[in-house]
Amino acid sequence: MDTNEYIGGYLDRARKAQEEFETYDQDQVDLAVKTIARIVDENSEMLARLAVDETGMGVYEDKVIKNRMKAKIIWNSLKGKKSVGIISRNEQTGITEIAKPMGVVSAITPMTNPIVTPMSNAMFALKGRNAIIITPHHKSLKTSSMVVSLINEALAEIHAPENLIQIIDQQSRENTKALIEKTDIVIATGGMGMVKTAYSSGKPALGVGAGNVQCIIDKDADLAAAVPMIITGRAFDNGIICSAEQSVIVPAAVYDEAVDAFRKNGAYVATDKDELDRLRNTLFQFGAMNKDVVGQSVAKIAAMAQIEVPEGTRVIVAQTEGPGDILGKEKMCPVLALYRYDDFKEAVAIAGANLEMEGKGHSVAIHSNTVENIEYAALSLSVSRFVINQCSATSAGGSFFNGFAPTNTLGCGSWGGNSISENLDYKHLINVSRIGYYMKDNQVPSEEELWA
Q1: Is the pLDDT reported for residue 208 higher than 90?
Q2: Does 87 lie in the same domain as 9?
Q3: pLDDT band at 193 (very low <50, low <70, confident <90, very high)
Q4: Which of 19, 317, 410, 442 is the 20 to 30 Å CA partner of 78?
Q5: Which residues span the domain enclosing 376?
């Protein structure tokens, strides 16, 4: 079938569904959004198994946790928020805001997150009374299609419009290009090539930048609490989450103590020059990450690098000599680069150098009890999120214990070539009309007051 005819069918169905859904009230909209989260939560185990089997990436148990927690956290964040009709009245400014849908959303989905990314994008789209068409990665088509099928069966039970959520069943660059050029807004989650394609579609686009989370341990941090969180973040789902810790920067004063803590928490610390060279050559080819290591286990990475690690090793920690080492780039597998510093400014400089190499705009994790140091790092480093005393992998995308908007799409601002520098949620998928009332009692400043 001709590409334009094929994509045109999806668009016609989506626009018909969206036109009907636009008439729904807030309670009806929220029921549909809750239904999406509930069905993923209820089928989390089956979907996790399907994803691991189809993509050959990640960890089944971690995907189950991710499916359940993301469904719960995102719904908890969305419920009770106004997205239909008048959403705010400001007596001080005289502005009344009215939410209106954007129309039809297209969403590019990566193979690293074939379940929760379609789920969250669909929840955000429907919260704004939009329809959504998902274009999946060809290597996770079965998994993402199953997610959409289950959701649509549940939406039919509550009599939601048919075809509010669709998924392309013939994945190709041509179909994706035609789709994003014809929808009203594009969400691009995945590789930078696809994100750039979305931004050049001629339609508003919301994309993400590369991750390379730098993790700084301050001198006053509790190593017994910080190290397990860092190991968990690096090991979670075999390291495929963009917000996972990539490098850990440790004070020289407690360096040996920290290395011992890493070992006690399941890390193999690589210090031998030959081992480190083999690890670099395994992880990177011609300066770019080797796609064959993405989402693979520690055992497989170690075997590829000809490194013997104890059974049960959770993460390989690679000791580096300082900034500029290629190990300081993003590694979408359970390998963590290790640095040491003398004072906190040096730690921030190391993080900044690694971010200039890759990952500028994304996130930084800091384990510290000194607000002055935390704010110094936040003032100095060009990233959108600073995750404090938390596991970045499971917290930068929002959690019950921080104020970040729960999502799977983390904007990186102009630093990462993105249009937003915050976590994507439903507010990015609504148009807002504003009524401006005449404020007759507003005080007009005198010339003296104005220019004083």
Answers
A1: no
A2: yes
A3: confident
A4: 19
A5: 213-397
